Amino acid sequence: MKIEPTAKRVRVYFGGRQIADTTRALLVWEGPHYPTYYLPLADVDQAALQPTGATTRSPSRGEGVVHTVTAGGRQAADAALVYPESPIEELKDHVRFDWAAMDAWFEEDEEVYVHPRDPYSRVDILPSSRRVRIEIDGTTVAESTRTMILFETGLPPRYYLPKTDVRLDLLAPTDTSTQCPYKGTAEYWTVSGQKDLAWSYRTPLPESQRIAGLIAFYNEKIDIYVDDVLQDRPKTPFS
């Protein structure tokens, strides 16, 4: 487990109220992919935390005391954990909120979605004049020399193409929507009968404005040619 302090101001809202405000948050990597926040109890509204009497045990963090979060007439059951006797000294007197159970999280004055931004993950978006061709079962679905290539730590390059270079007649919108802490909220399309194969960020977050309105396809499930060279299909959780 990796633990690092962050200098960012972190705020948590629930039930229409601010229940935590701190500049002393800890980033804790409980798993390998992204961190979570542990906030000092001294910077949390104590009236919002109601112990349930239940506990849970972690091999690394010790025994966690389960709390229900209460504010503004609402409750989020079992949405907070405190490790008062953790063998990891830094985690004592800190609380871990269930991210999804809270109404909103802010880093400084910007709302953050899904999970904290990982300081070791980077997103680079670069324009490219290389010819990118998207094929599905031998049918060209998109072709462009005006692609934005998004390079994100730990993921394959994603090729974002202008809609005018995409066969939109082969795309059908779905009701799927996902959020990314680096890019924003995505909308999806079914392509040639494959659900949610393509996506776009209509209004991405500021650092990802270059891909606004462009369409990307899952490299893992289609054939992508770059300058007429077929790219390998990467193995990822999206395969």
List keywords for this structure.
single chain; 239 residues; mainly beta; Metal Binding Protein, Guanine Nucleotide Exchange Factor, Chain A; seven-stranded antiparallel β-sheet; 22 strands; elongated
Give a description of the structure.
It is a single chain. The protein folds into 2 domains: 111 residues, Domain of unknown function (DUF427) (Metal Binding Protein, Guanine Nucleotide Exchange Factor, Chain A, Beta Complex), CATH 2.170.150; 108 residues, Domain of unknown function (DUF427) (Metal Binding Protein, Guanine Nucleotide Exchange Factor, Chain A). 0% of the residues lie in helices and 52% in strands. It has a 7-stranded antiparallel β-sheet, with no helix packed on it. The model has no long low-confidence stretch (mean pLDDT 95).
Secondary-structure content class: mainly beta
Give the full name of the CATH homologous superfamily of the largest domain.
Domain of unknown function (DUF427)
Q: Low-confidence stretches at least 5 residues in length (pLDDT < 50)?
A: none
Total beta-strand segments: 22
- Spatial ordering of strands, largest sheet: 1-4-5-9-8-7-6
Helix count, DSSP H or I runs of 4 or more residues: 0
Q: What coarse outline follows from CA principal-axis ratios? A: elongated
Major β-sheet profile: 7 strands, antiparallel
Proper CATH architecture of the largest domain: Beta Complex
Q: Within the CATH hierarchy, at the fold level, what is the topology of the largest domain?
A: Metal Binding Protein, Guanine Nucleotide Exchange Factor, Chain A
CATH top level label of the largest domain? Mainly Beta
Approximately how much helix is present in the residues? Answer: under 10%
Total discrete domains: 2
Kindly report the average pLDDT value: 95
Give the ordered list of helices and strands: EEEEEEEEEEEEEEEEEEEEEE
Strand content: over 45%
**Distance between the first and last residues' Cα:** 27 Å
Output the radius of gyration.
Answer: 21 Å
